[in-house]
Specification:
Endonuclease I-creI; 4-stranded antiparallel beta sheet; rod-shaped
């Protein structure tokens, strides 16, 4: 199970207690995947839920909230995700009741109109969170680093919408809660996405899904430890490479002096240093300084002098 699915499982594992939150959750589901159509007996409404257990939970919510059983459920196979998708359909007076009560449509003398994305159904903060949960379970996905072995996966959370207004209003509501997101077009969909780990954590906390927040926090800590370790390894490797380059340069300088004038040409302390550097070529500067019973600073000074002499020859 990927991280996005584990968030959805957590959402469905915690039943909503208040009736107004149940309505907001259903409104989020319908806004996220609902389709309005004309039926013989009036309004028609359908929406899809992946997974039998989740579909049963949603059908039970409809019965608890509106007092009638869902009579029409069809199933289609989702081969890509190896999970059946259940389509719940309502028609006639039942569809009308749901659409009106959830603030999705409004009837007036002028006719029927589809209302804006956010209304009284999300006025309470708890209801907005329930609404967001409904949106995520039908139109959301989330990936985190390390989910797919062999693939470089970053942090990515998204919600898919069929209309730009829905995506834009959701982004505005999230921004009010200090959650920054972006919107892009993908074929016929409008995709709201968050790519920062902290932004995704804030979004999951807003649902709320505390267990998933803790899991993500653990992933973020592990990634940071790994990144620090890699940076240190790269830094150590860089230091080793620089040391090797410096060592090769000083050995080349010593060889030049031997060829042009001989090491006896050097002052005693420089001669001793040059001979020791050649004899113990694998020593670090600290080790070589200890052999010569001098400080590392003094050794560096001598090596610089040898290099300067070689350049003048």
């Amino acid at each position: 199970m990927n991280f996005g699915e584990s968030i959805k499982e957590e959402i469905f594992s915690k039943p909503l207690k208040e009736n107004h939150c149940k309505k907001a959750f259903l409104a989020g589901i319908i806004r996220g995947s609902g389709v309005l159509f004309e039926a013989e007996n009036g309004y028609g409404l359908s929406f899809k839920i992946a997974g039998e257990r989740r579909a049963i939970i949603v059908a039970d919510l409809i019965r608890e909230t509106f007092g009638f059983d869902v009579r029409e459920i069809s199933v289609e196979e989702d081969r890509l995700n190896a999970r059946d998708v259940f389509e719940i359909s309502l028609t006639g007076e039942e569809a009308r009741k749901v659409l009106l009560d959830l603030g999705i449509i409004k009837e007036s003398r002028e006719g029927t109109s589809v209302l804006g994305f956010f209304g009284e159904i999300t006025d309470r903060e708890c209801c907005f969170r329930a609404f967001l949960r409904g949106l995520f379970v039908v139109s959301g996905s989330c990936t985190v680093p390390g989910e797919n072995s062999g693939e470089k996966t970053g942090y990515h959370l998204e919600l898919c919408f069929s209309h730009s207004v829905s995506a834009e209003l959701t982004a505005k509501e999230l921004f009010k809660r200090n959650i920054k997101s972006n919107i892009t077009r993908r074929k016929s969909d409008y995709v709201l996405y968050i790519k920062s780990a902290d932004g995704i954590k804030d979004f999951i906390a807003a649902l709320p899904a505390p267990v998933s927040v803790l899991k993500l926090t653990d992933i973020m800590i592990e990634r940071e430890i790994l990144n620090v370790s890699n940076r240190r390894k790269n830094c150590d490797l860089g230091n080793v490479n620089r040391q090797i380059e410096a060592q090769e340069k000083i050995l080349a300088a010593i060889n030049k002096i031997e060829k042009e004038r001989g090491v006896d040409f050097l002052k005693p302390d420089l001669k001793a240093t040059a001979n020791a550097r050649k004899k113990f070529a694998d020593d670090t500067l600290s080790e070589l300084a200890a052999r010569l019973s001098i400080t590392k600073s003094c050794l560096n000074h001598r090596l610089r002098k040898i290099a300067e002499i070689a350049e003048k020859l």
